[in-house]
Design a protein that fits this description.
about 120 residues, mainly alpha, 5 helices, globular
Length: about 120
């Protein structure tokens, strides 16, 4: 029963990301502008936190692992917020770099959570 609960709760963010990937294969437009990509990054951040919380609650992750994931997700959030500030300031080069780094952290966290 524990695994069914994880599937229903913990897998939802990954299902969303999978659906976004599938949309690309079907010709549905992917986020192109930096603002669209930033919105997707914020959604990924939320998905990572929800998935980690569900994994800790289900016993698939220890509390210490959950805390470490939260710290790394917080670092990605700082980068995403920096991206937003750079966009507002008209510095698209800095914004793109911060966004790429923030998404890299989130992607690695997603891969780790999938492996658990």
């Amino acid at each position: 029963m524990r695994h069914a609960k994880f599937f229903l709760l913990g897998a939802a963010p990954f299902v969303l990301l999978y659906m976004l990937s599938a949309c690309a294969l079907l010709g549905v437009p992917q986020p192109q502008s930096i603002n669209e990509r930033l919105a997707l990054a914020y959604a990924s951040h939320t998905a990572v936190l929800e998935s980690a919380t569900n994994s800790v609650n289900s016993g698939d992750l220890t509390a210490a692992e959950g805390e470490q994931i939260e710290k790394l997700a917080d670092e990605s959030r700082v980068l995403l917020d920096g991206t937003r500030a750079a966009i507002a300031g008209g510095d698209t080069s800095t914004a793109a770099g911060k966004l790429q780094l923030g998404m890299s952290i989130l992607t690695e966290l997603q891969l780790y959570l999938r492996s658990r």
